[in-house]
Amino acid sequence: LDLGYSSHSHFGAAFRRGKFDLVLMDIEMPVMNGLHAASLIRQIEAGRDAEPTPIYALSANVLSHQATSYRAAGMDGCIAKPLNAAELFEIVERVAGQGVAFPSVGA
């Protein structure tokens, strides 16, 4: 689990070091926005001929034209803020592909 990076160079170095199973990308970040970061990830992967990492946008801006721009930047989907735990668990479970049982929401 990595919880973010404060600069473009730290972000690129971390992604070049290893493979991530899933990226939850905030769209509104101070140093580099999520669209740029997703594009950078896709460039790094293409340079390594690597399998694409699932990237999901996290944003309160989820109108259809905004979701289209996230996909155009290389993201696989979008999760609306405020986060819905059941939706987030479903995405993690799908990405993991292992049928992991998560606690039910509100239990």
Quickly describe the structure.
The protein is of the alpha/beta class and 107 residues long.
Structural summary, described in words:
The mean pLDDT is about 80. Strand 2 (about 55-60), helix 3 and strand 3 form a beta-alpha-beta unit. The protein is α/β, with parallel strands linked by helices. It contains four helices and three strands; from the N terminus they run H-E-H-E-H-E-H. The chain has a three-stranded parallel sheet with strand order 1-2-3, with helices on one face. Helix 1 packs parallel to helix 2 (about 35-50). Helices cover about 45% and strands about 10% of the residues.
Topology:
Elements: H1 8-17, E1 23-26, H2 34-48, E2 55-59, H3 64-72, E3 77-80, H4 85-96
Parallel strand pairs: 1-2, 2-3
Largest sheet: 3 strands, parallel
Q: Give the neighbour order of strands across the main sheet.
A: 1-2-3
Reading the helices and strands in chain order gives: HEHEHEH
Q: Which value, in Å, is the CA radius of gyration?
A: 14 Å
Q: Terminal Cα separation, in Å?
A: 25 Å
- Parts with pLDDT < 50 across at least 5 consecutive residues: none
The secondary-structure class comes to: alpha/beta
